[in-house]
Amino acid sequence: MYLAKDSLARYSIQAVELWNQLETAETPKEEEAILKEIWEIQTDQEIAADTQAELADQLDAEICAVKARLKHLVELHNQAIERLERWRNSLDKTLLQFHSMGVIPTEIVGRSRHIRLKENPPSCEVLINPCDLPTEYRTEKLVVTPNKRKILADWKQGIPVDGTRIERKLRVEYGIVPSNLTAATEVISNRALNSQETHSTTQKTGRKEKALPKNTDTSNKKVKARVG
């Protein structure tokens, strides 16, 4: 279950219902139809706006969380790959060192495998500026890139450039109604706190510890004491 879904349950029941529907959707078309329902079946535009904005915020938060976990996993795997590659390179390096010392020949035969030291194809390293090489030893490439800043600047001045097209796409921004700014700030703080608590619990043990049961027999003990 996504962490965002738990958080949504505290602030928007409608958004939770949408999230549940999105989880069961099997195709992108189904997902698109579900999201369109926010506005197609809405009877109150204010509720629809709050539902969509709340869902958008939680999706952004979930995306950031997943990316953070992905980054951590990539770092772990990269470290493992680097370590294995270091071991692999050390195998070859050791043989080359012993061969340079005259300890082993260029070919070693075992019981089921053999090792052969072979020369790589020749490689060339240029020690001077390539422009100083004779013409027959140079390959020149002309790279042409458009000056988009200049094109946009001229467009703003009413000067169109043939072969170009200027677009201004709309983007969606989700804000907070000024009258609800204080309440929204408290909501954001609660989310951050919940996220930190969940993250710290996962990092420590990967599981939640069982709480010790409280003593519920104090009243019975008192009664027994009086009777005695």
Question: Which helices and strands occur, and which strands form pairs?
Answer:
Elements: H1 3-8, H2 13-24, H3 28-40, H4 45-100, E1 107-109, E2 114-116, H5 148-156, H6 181-204, H7 218-227
Antiparallel strand pairs: 1-2
| Strand/helix succession | HHHHEEHHH
Strand content: under 5%
What is the structural class?
A: mainly alpha
Radius of gyration: 33 Å
The major β-sheet equals:
2 strands, antiparallel
End-to-end separation: 54 Å
Mean pLDDT equals 79
Tally of DSSP helical segments: 7
Poorly predicted runs: 205-228
Largest sheet: spatial strand order: 1-2
Which percent bin holds the helix content?
55-70%
Mass-distribution shape: flat
What is the strand tally?
2
Please give a structural write-up.
The protein is mainly α and 228 residues long. The protein has helices at 3-8, 13-24, 28-40, 45-100, 148-156, 181-204, 218-227; strands at 107-109, 114-116. Strands 1-2 form a two-stranded antiparallel ribbon. Strand 1 and strand 2 form a beta hairpin. The longest helix has 56 residues, at 45-100.
Concise overview:
The chain is 57% helix and 3% strand. It has 228 residues and is mainly α. β1 and β2 form a beta hairpin.
For the structure shown, list the relevant keywords.
single chain, 228 residues, mainly alpha, two-stranded antiparallel sheet, flat, disordered C terminus
